[in-house]
Write a structure and sequence with these properties.
The protein is an alpha/beta fold and 318 residues long. It has 11 helices and 9 strands. 36% of the residues lie in helices and 16% in strands.
Length: 318
């Protein structure tokens, strides 16, 4: 049993030497994993970064591909593409003296994504994987009134659930952000409680700007917003605003000008879980097991939801 003063997530990673930190849900999700990844870098771990990508990977040269559906992205990759979060992150990493390679997974179904993960894990002899979601929809079990955008998140969970790695963990940061996609955070809390009873919840900790990692995360998000002005990350922008002490309707991009934001300190919390528990918690994971295309994942989830009785939203008292 761990002591209260020890962070359970990093205690689980203490013996790991080669860690893969990977974004689960596409877009800028890997940025949500930066505080954890940077802490591991600073501990002297060998860290590889990856992200399920929404970037246009199809036109990359053959020598960019480590294996089918996983590309190696550097600061010079596809400079003609304005939107390329993995490249933008690689550029920021290089500016700050970190290894400046980020791997990009194609947006595919579970079977090819698992093969791509396996190739990456074997290439670097990875002994721990931290799958990160910017938001909380990775914690949805499928019978909630609103799921957010779970396709990529749960395809990533399913892909990793069948790969034998000594440590497989899930981190969710950005509590409350998915309310704008229909997620009931009362149900999120209910699901976290179920994971606690299951023994899969490893606790939570806050990303603070008074830490080296928190300050660097804020800088990385600002860099990404500057270099992707037409499509900045709302999720990471919200988290970074919360890390800096913003509250309420703190607008930081024109993309949200028609929405009222609720930036708050809970968005800075990293909730950590065992991946096996998150996989068991998802009631439709077996339905997406044999998928090859992401649209097959979407269809399987829709079919499941047509058959299941949905839990209504749970109000958080105030």
């Amino acid at each position: 049993m761990a002591s209260l003063h020890i962070n359970p997530l990093f205690a689980r990673l203490e013996s790991a030497e080669r860690v893969l930190v990977t974004g689960a849900g596409g877009g800028f999700d890997i940025y949500a994993g930066l505080p954890v990844a940077l802490s591991l870098f600073h501990q002297g771990k060998h860290v590889q970064l990856a992200n399920l990508s929404f970037s246009a990977l199809e036109g990359l040269p053959l020598d960019s591909w480590l294996a089918p559906d996983v590309a190696v992205i550097t600061p010079e990759t596809a400079l003609h593409q304005a939107y390329f979060p993995e490249r933008t992150l690689a550029q920021w990493l290089g500016l700050h003296g970190y290894p400046n390679t980020v791997h990009a997974f194609s947006r595919v179904g579970v079977q090819p994504l698992r093969a791509a993960y396996r190739a990456l894990i074997e290439r670097y002899d990875i002994d721990a994987v931290v799958l990160v979601d910017g938001g909380t929809d990775i914690l949805m079990r499928g019978d909630e009134s609103g799921l957010g955008t779970p396709e990529e998140d749960l395809a990533s969970v399913a892909a990793l659930a069948a790969i034998d790695v000594p440590e497989r963990l899930v981190v969710s940061i950005g509590f409350g952000i998915d309310a704008y996609h229909g997620v009931s955070h009362g149900l999120v809390l209910e699901n976290i409680a179920a994971l606690e009873r299951d023994g899969s919840f490893l606790g939570a900790f806050s990303v603070s700007r008074t830490t080296r990692e928190g300050a660097l995360f804020v800088d990385a998000v600002a860099h990404a917003q500057h270099h992707t002005p037409d499509h900045p990350s709302i999720v990471n922008g919200s988290i970074a605003a919360a890390v800096q002490g913003a509250f309420g309707d703190a607008q930081f991009t024109s993309r949200t000008r028609c929405s009222e934001l609720f930036i708050n300190p809970l968005m800075t919390l990293c909730f950590a879980f065992e991946l096996d528990g998150v996989a068991r918690n998802c009631r439709y994971l077996d339905r997406i097991e044999d998928t090859h295309l992401i649209r097959q994942v979407s269809s399987a989830i829709e079919n499941f939801r047509d058959e299941v009785r949905q839990r209504p939203p749970r109000r958080i008292p105030h």
